[in-house]
Design goal:
Layout lengths: L6 E6 L2 E6 L10 H15 L6 E6 L11 H8 L4 H18 L5 E5 L2 E3 L1 H6 L4 E4 L4 E3 L13 H4 L7 H8 L5 H7 L4 E2 L5 H10 L4 H8 L12 H7 L5 H11 L2 H10 L4 H14 L5 H15 L3 H12 L17 H8 L13
Parallel strand pairs: 2-3, 3-4, 4-6, 5-7, 6-8
Antiparallel strand pairs: 1-2
Length: 350
């Protein structure tokens, strides 16, 4: 096993351990990394020597900052075939983790965004530390919170998932544990103890985490929950904007100012995605919908422009088109959300 591998996969004391090892890119996922994790997880699924799975990262920085957005944008500028192949593989990995028959633990010790959320949210035990920063910032680059966001976000308390998805708000561990995004809080200097105790009891990571967890502190989000539930409860983005404006509080005005910087198309796509995802029966159904949607959204002006402004040129002044919510019609959304023909549809691994 080369330490140069972008994913280190090995079995240690009954634990199948997947360590993300692409530190220069904050462990952002590419297709080869997803393939490597799938291969290991399939090999361990029926291996009686493997009692549970542990996902962590090498080095000090990050957990996983997302997916390979530059590649996705370059592919989307053409026929999007490489982007679709990446989504197909990444979503197969997300779904494999979601349905995995053995306990999965994710040590979310650092930045966790986009693709990092996709490989940690399906885990049974999700441990945050003082270094954790969680966000789904996709509306700021013309995308939408994929990798299962349509399933997980609307199932958070009240309207918090809608608020997170639309604003791209960044949360620290006190909030993520309070909202149930993460299951436990451990200071980062306790992670080695967690790994050591897990090695002695590899089948019961939740008991190990329960025994070590400490208090993450007061959640800053808590006082705002009534406002979030009231102001983000609508089924159109226009109504959310109007409610924030009518509310007029400093907090509401700050949310509105943030939302006005986001892609109008992305805001409308994301709200529909979450309202639809809330009604679905299975995670795989959600992933099939996100796959159909993702292959189209990456070819739109706003995704190309968002990646240019935020990731390539870094001028952070995207020129959204349409520039106003009113320019994004229901017919536009219907086209983006249309199901794929059966022979092109996403399917989970057997």
């Amino acid at each position: 096993m080369s330490s140069e591998s972008e994913v280190l996969a090995r079995v240690q004391s009954g634990v199948g351990r997947l360590t993300l090892n692409r530190p220069k890119a904050l462990h952002a996922l590419n297709r080869a990394m997803c393939d490597a994790m799938i291969e290991a997880l399939l090999a361990w699924r029926d291996d009686e020597a493997v009692k549970s799975i542990l996902i962590d990262h090498a080095g000090e920085r990050g957990f996983c900052a997302g997916g390979d957005i530059r590649m996705i944008a370059e592919s989307g500028a053409g026929d999007a075939s490489e982007a679709r192949a990446f989504f197909d593989t990444e979503y197969k990995l997300n779904n494999l983790l979601f349905d995995y028959p053995k306990p999965v633990t994710a040590l979310v010790d650092g930045i966790v965004m986009g693709g990092g959320v996709g490989i940690s949210e399906p885990a049974d035990v999700r441990i945050a530390t003082e270094r954790t920063t969680y966000a789904m910032p996709e509306t700021g680059i013309g995308l939408f919170p994929d990798v299962g966001g349509g399933w997980f976000l609307p199932r958070l308390p009240g309207q918090t998932g809608v608020w997170l998805a639309l604003t791209g708000a960044r949360l620290k561990a006190a909030d993520t544990v309070f909202l149930g995004i993460h299951t436990h809080y451990l200071p980062s200097d306790a992670l080695e103890a967690f790994r050591a105790i897990l090695a002695a009891d590899p089948a019961h990571p939740i008991d190990v985490a329960d025994g070590l967890e400490t208090d993450a502190g007061e959640p800053p989000i808590e006082p705002h929950l009534p406002a979030i539930d009231r102001l983000f409860a609508f089924d159109t983005v226009e109504e959310i904007f109007a409610a924030l404006e009518d509310d007029g509080s400093d907090w509401a005005m700050a949310q509105l100012a943030t939302l006005r910087t986001k892609s109008p198309q992305s805001l409308k796509v994301t709200l529909r995605q979450l309202r639809t995802g809330a009604t679905l029966d299975t995670f795989a159904d959600n992933m099939a919908k996100e796959y159909a949607l993702g292959g189209r959204v990456v070819r739109t002006h706003d995704f190309q422009e968002g990646v240019r402004a935020v990731i390539v040129d870094k001028d952070n002044t995207p020129n959204w088109s349409p520039a106003e919510l009113s320019g994004v019609s229901d017919a536009d959304l219907d086209r983006l959300f249309a199901p794929l023909p059966a022979d092109e549809a996403w399917r989970p691994l057997p």
